[in-house]
Amino acid sequence: MSVLRFDNVSKQYPGGHVALSEVSFEVQPGEMLFVTGHSGAGKSTLLKLIHLAERPSRGAVLFAERNLLKVRGRRVPLHRREVGVVFQDHRLLTDRSVFENVALPLILRGLRRGEIGKRVRSVLDKLGLGARERALPTQLSAGEQQRVGIARALVGEPRLLLADEPTGNLDPTLSAEIMALFAALPERGISVLVASHDLGLVKRMKRRVLVLDHGQLADDIAPEDLADA
């Protein structure tokens, strides 16, 4: 059973702009893949449909065979617990510590304090941030801030991690570090979908690549075919 399936999905915004047109693909459990394309190709819209920040105009987005078009009201936050999101700009609360930023999704769920502490410290240790839990985001390097954003996305133990241009503000060394973290997640059963316009980075990762062109799925490239892409 796929963790995610797009079935002839189209998205048209008010005013007539077509962001996606009849896009179909599947993501398997424990698979890491990239979606790439020019600015405005539809990458961010695709991620928003998965996270229910937007709804499709036509077609179906299925998450673990559940049609997201039918997920409404109080069921939306329940769905989002299964989908972690990493943003390019981190979106960290600058007046809260690293620990508090990562703990926020669990606090909103109403978990007990002991369970929150256990989960937060576990994910911080795995990302090399255990010694920084009391620091404020402004006291961290760019790479550390991005890792805090990843920790916050992973602390809820999602089935799928979405990353929207996660290395856009990082130098090549830090970009490679972040990608290595993502590449290790499928071993834990977490699927990873990364939106990136950095073709060099995408090719180096040697993972499946979805290519969007003006809202259409122009190509679905297998890792072994990347050298010819």
From TrEMBL:
Gene3D superfamilies: P-loop containing nucleotide triphosphate hydrolases. Residues 4-229 form the ABC transporter domain. It is found in: Cell inner membrane; Cell membrane. One of its GO terms (molecular function) is transmembrane transporter activity. InterPro entries: AAA+_ATPase, ABC_transporter-like_ATP-bd, ABC_transporter-like_CS, ABC_transpr_LolD-like, Cell_div_FtsE, P-loop_NTPase. GO terms for biological process: cell division. The keyword Membrane applies. It comes from the Bacteria. Keywords: ATP-binding, Cell cycle, Cell division, Cell membrane, Membrane, Nucleotide-binding. It is a peripheral membrane protein. GO terms for cellular component: plasma membrane. SMART domains: AAA (SM00382). Part of the ABC transporter FtsEX involved in cellular division. Important for assembly or stability of the septal ring. NCBIfam families: FtsE. Homodimer. Forms a membrane-associated complex with FtsX. Belongs to the ABC transporter superfamily. This is Cell division ATP-binding protein FtsE. The lineage of its organism: Bacteria, Pseudomonadati, Pseudomonadota, Gammaproteobacteria, Lysobacterales.
